[in-house]
Structure formats: C-alpha cells, structure tokens
What we know:
Helices cover 0% and strands 48% of the residues of chain A. With 115 residues, chain A is an all-beta fold. In chain B, the strands form three sheets. In chain B, strands 2, 5, 6, 10, 11 and 12 form a six-stranded mixed beta sheet that branches. A four-stranded antiparallel beta sheet of chain B has the order 3-9-8-7, with no helix packed on it. Chain B is built from no helices and twelve strands.
Amino acid sequence: EAGVAQSPRYKIIEKRQSVAFWCNPISGHATLYWYQQILGQGPKLLIQFQNNGVVDDSQLPKDRFSAERLKGVDSTLKIQPAKLEDSAVYLCASSSRDLLPGEQFFGPGTRLTVL
Amino acid sequence: GDSVTQMEGPVTLSEEACLTINCTYTATGYPSLFWYVQYPGEGLQLLLKATKADDKGSNKGFEATYRKETTSFHLEKGSVQVSDSAVYFCALSDRTGGFKTIFGAGTRLFVKA
C-alpha cells in the first residue's frame, strides 16, 4: 500500500514570495490533515479536511495561508506572502473511519526555509 | 484546553541501556493516547497506542501503560539499539477536543554503539 506522498521535499524562498505544497493521501482515506512543525516542537494542526469539506481550520493563518482539496483526494497548501516565521516542516497526514481518532499516517514532509 | 508534556531531550544512551521517556497529559475528557516516532528525514509513524485506563500499548519492544490516576503514558524499552535513535512524540486525541490530536514537543533519543 502506497503511503502519503508529499512534494516538494525541500523549498527555499525569500520572504514575501509565495509557495505551494502538494499532498496525496493514502487511497481511500477520507480525512486529510496539514500540520506545521517548527524546529524543536511537535506538529501543530493547520487544517483538517473530511473528503473535500473543511472540518477545522481554526489555527490556519487565513490572511496568508490557504488550502484546498477540490476532489476529496489530493490537497494543496499555499502560503502567500511568506514570512520568516513560516520556516518549518509542513506535514500532511491522512486517516480513515477504520482508525482511532488520533491515529494517522504521515507523509515525509516539506521543509520550507524562508530567507 | 488539552495538553501534553514530555521530558526534554536530548536523551543519550548506550546500546542495550534501558529507556524511559516521561509523558503526562491534561484532558477534560477521556482521551486516547499515542506514541509516534520520527526517524531522520521522515514523517511521523505511529509506534503504539492505548484507549483506556491500564491499557498497555506495545510495539517493537517499546511499551507504554495508560495511567489515569497519574495522567501519564511513559514510554519504556528494556534494551535500546542504535536504530532506535529518533524523535519520540507523545500525543492524545479527545472527544471533548473535537478529536483534534495534540502532540507533545518531542524527545530526541541518541543511542551510541
């Protein structure tokens, strides 16, 4: 079974530029999460989708971050414009109804450096 | 709100030493508890889980017991290997928190040969 795929793996941009990350969850997983993991910290949820609907985006900085999951499968997270404090690893995860709440499969992440 | 507190790292051990990584939690409900592991350059992987008091989760020689009376879920292994070097995250998911997963800050483990 293929895991959660993310691209790119690494991205370096200058502040005020825009960037987009892509995620393809495990086939059949209806729930998709985007997390921000700052160095030395645990992952922090940015947004959770159930199919193509948003379940929780309370911690998404909506003035600069946006995310979509148009067909209920893959998803894109965008930052526009980026700030220095956005430097982090962006993790995508997915889960299904068969799993415990809290039990998720993670992708390898995209490491973003904002200069 | 719900929270998870882990012991600070890094933890450095010699191969075959015993490991304990402390984790305590605060939750308004009755959460499920998890340990995730993150190897260098990879995403998090579920290591073990427990859903009710006195449950013991175990996997790959690691164990953790859900202690409701002390709100703890400490990770233990009797004999660590170099390949166990990673960052370990304690996490919870609680119905009263909308089943959002709350992660601790992580504890980095280095195992020397």
